[in-house]
Design goal:
By secondary structure, the chain is an alpha/beta fold. It contains 13 helices and 14 strands. The protein folds into 2 domains: 3-190 and 373-390, Rossmann fold (3-Layer(aba) Sandwich); 195-371, Rossmann fold (3-Layer(aba) Sandwich). Helix 2 (78-87) packs across helix 3 (101-111).
Amino acid sequence: MTKILSVTGHYLPGYKGGGPIRTIANLVAHLGDEFDFRILTADHDLGDAMPYEGVMLGQWQQVGKAQVRYLTRRERSWPNWRRLLQEIDYDILYLNSFFSTLTIKTLFWRRLGLFPARPIILAPRGEFSPGALELKQTKKQLYIDFALRMRLSDKLIWQATGVNEKQDILNIWQSVKASNEPLVTVVPNLPPADTGSTQFSSLTEKTIGNARIVFLSRIARNKNLDYAVNLLRQTTDDIVFDIYGPIEDETYWQECLALMQSLPNNVQVSYKGAITADDVPNVLSCYHLLLFPTRGENFGHVILEALSSGCPVLISDQTPWRNLTEQKAGWDLPLEKPEAFQSALAQIVDMDATTFSTWSAGARKMAQSFSQDTAIIDANRNLFLQAREHG
């Protein structure tokens, strides 16, 4: 059985790291019987100082269908990381993130030839989208220039989760006029393996003139909560607006709180804190709309989860989820047109129970169509089979 060593910043039982955790967990759930997944990850959740309770540190242990090793800060140091890559037996190295310190260390040690040559797949997880690159832009661009000119990324297999992300990756090479174009393959993220069996609570009754709206994501600038709040500052309708997610950027959160102070009295806003991945579907099913004007997502697990829960979505056009209105599942709109977002908000508020039921069914149908697409499983399987041949 092919051994895949996956390196990711955070993993189960963590949940604050959002999409990347679910991406790898879904991959293992679908393909863990066909491939031997071994995962190296931090011993704590995103933003936490203390390690997980109930896990053994620095030892392999079974988590679902994968063997996981939770590493202390010392084990993630430069010399110890090189030793791990030299000692662990694997056929394919699967790196999640281009900018993570573990990826940087891996590519550096590989460039020096200090661990065995193996095929390497690198999934940047949306890090090259224009919205993501705007954050800490100078620092990121300096590292991109350094990595490409020092040929740290030579002979990598790049995984893009959609055609837009593929173009984002190619744009990086064009921006620094690199001569060796990267090998990029489009492989969508997998849905949860048990989507079809999940039971959701009943949706809140919909009446004309009001709506329950939810924002569910990490509180970070790229997720664009401030944009959502500014939209709601303009409405005269009765809105319940609940915010869920871990606070990753405290400075940004304070900016959002300041904006919330100017919301009109007809908008009831509450911060509900972070919730586990298991709680997400039932929480989403209690709302009429997911408002998520993200600056860029390579996939957007929360979007699929909202659709699966029968909750229409109002999102930016910076995700792979497109043509939502045609399927009566929601709206995907350009951030440059806030008036279009306002119109969509008014439309959801004006829906009666019958109309909303139609849109809720459209959301579920779109999610079901994606989740039952066996071609997505085949694409993920072939990513590793072809990497083995490539090596």
